[in-house]
Amino acid sequence: FFASAGFQDSRTSGWYQQWFPNLNGSSIKDITFLDSLTGFAVTTPDASDIGYILKTSNGGDNWFTVHTYPPPNGNVGFTRIKFATDSIGYASTDYTQFFKTTNAGLSWNNISSPPWSVDDMCVLNKDTIIFVTSSSFAGGVYRSTDGGVYWQLIWTNGPSGNPSNIYMFDKNMGYIQDQNFNY
Questions:
Q1: How far apart are CA 156 and CA 172, in angstroms?
Q2: Cα-atom radius of gyration of the chain, to the nearest Å?
Q3: Distance (Å, whole) CA 100 – CA 120
Q4: What is the reported pTM?
Q5: Do 26 and 51 touch, CB atoms closer than 8 A?
């Protein structure tokens, strides 16, 4: 993991390497920062099939584990981590489990079982979350309007190719993408 205190044109200035705690072979899957100091990362499963949520409060100089995820099935880790506010955040998994924090990441609770694993997600506010899954079986775009408790399929392309990425400009306009098409 590399960080920069100020982006510069020079290749040698501004960037320095930072270190995560021992993750037992897992790797960082997604990372987000709430401000210049507070950030979160989620990982793939490690050698013991454990996924991690990590937090930094000093701009990434030090990271510590705030949650471990022993999944019900092997080889399942976290996929994304996003925050609606400084205290309310969500973490998705490769399995049908969805986690929420309401205390700035100090504790995480499994709040629901989305109908499929999450490839990517956007958190529009503390109640509205949209995720995509590329599965040909149950893939498409799903929305929750109650903070991730219940999920509704709002679009699917069936087995022809469902989205793996999403970007929402605002609550009314967004973009989804799969490996073959942009929508």
A1: 18
A2: 17
A3: 16
A4: 0.87
A5: yes
